[in-house]
Amino acid sequence: MERIPQTPPQIAPITDGLHRPLWSVMIPAYNCSQYLAEAIQSVLQQDMGTYLMQIEVIDDCSTDANIEDLVKKIGKGRVDYYKQKTNVGSLRNFETCINRSRGAYIHLLHGDDRVKQGYYESVTQIFKKFPQAGAASCAWEYINSEGAFTHRSRLEAGYPCLLENWLFKLAERPRLQYVAMTVKREVYEKLGSFYLVHYGEDWEMWARIAKEYETAYIPEFLAEYREHKNSITWHSYQTGQNVKDIAKVTSAIMNYLPQKDRRRMHRKAKKNFAHWLLEDTYGPWFSHRNNKIAYNQIKTILGIHIDRHIISRISRLLLHMWTDPYRSIFKKKVPK
Question: What residue ranges are annotated as transmembrane (predicted)?
Answer without folding.
Answer: none
